[in-house]
Amino acid sequence: MKKRHFLIFLGGLLATLLLTLRVSTLGGLTLDLRDSVTAQTSGGLLISAAASLQNVLEAIDPQAEQTVGAGVNYNFGSSGALQQQIEQGAPADVFISAASRQMDALQQKGLILTDTRRNLLTNHLVLIVPSNSSLNLTSFRQLTGDKVQKIAVGEPRSVPVGQYTEELFKNLGILAQVRSKLIYGNSVRNVLAAVESGNVDAGIVYTTDRLISTQVKQVATAPDELHSPIVYPIAVLKESKNPQAAKSYVEFLSSSPASAVFQRYGFGISE
């Protein structure tokens, strides 16, 4: 088979797979690969966004599509995993991270349009337990106690909530005492799901994740000075197939109507 025909065959096979497969990840986050094909070929947008943004971006979506004049599809996951996908050439028009680290990495590799980058949102770190928990926890320091056996946290190398949590434990001086109790999740929603299921005694998530669940209760809030500022940077990717629509999407998320929805879901607006 000639090389050209072979490449055409591979392209057709990939397109067929993309049109028929769904890829699922832990914690209830899914990416329908058919959507990425549609977004990249019909003038629509594909947004790679931190898992903690799923509910609010889906709520904003009708307004966003009307404003930018294009369909908008989403790929939700941990910021570190999304960063790696983008570095490996996965299609996307806009990236929204839950920490600066991942956006910094893409910027250093020349993968974003730097003039579109801005800090969009803020959040807070909270300690949660199952809603029927009998533990009388009121502070993070109590996680060192014998009654707490399992603590769900984000994986700190790729999940921003895990990065913030590790910084918190270090600054409280309790990391060594709790390390053996830590159960690592591949996204903040995975951490939330572990607490909801009752498979762990406690977990650390963002305020916004606690607000979407009736199966957990918040027992403490981390002082902001004990970890890096929680910010959500946003930027258009250099390889966007629809850069003008992508820039319009970024502008819309910074608008007053979008900010009102973000605040309703518990996010702070970055100054």
Automatic annotation (TrEMBL):
GO terms for molecular function: metal ion binding; molybdate ion binding; tungstate binding. Pfam families: SBP_bac_11. CDD domains: PBP2_YvgL_like. InterPro entries: ModA, ModA/WtpA, YvgL-like_PBP2. Coiled coil: none annotated. The keyword Signal applies. Belongs to the bacterial solute-binding protein ModA family. PANTHER family: MOLYBDATE-BINDING PERIPLASMIC PROTEIN (PTHR30632), SULFATE-BINDING PROTEIN (PTHR30632:SF0). This is Molybdate ABC transporter substrate-binding protein. It comes from Drouetiella hepatica Uher 2000/2452. The lineage of its organism: Bacteria, Bacillati, Cyanobacteriota, Cyanophyceae, Oculatellales.
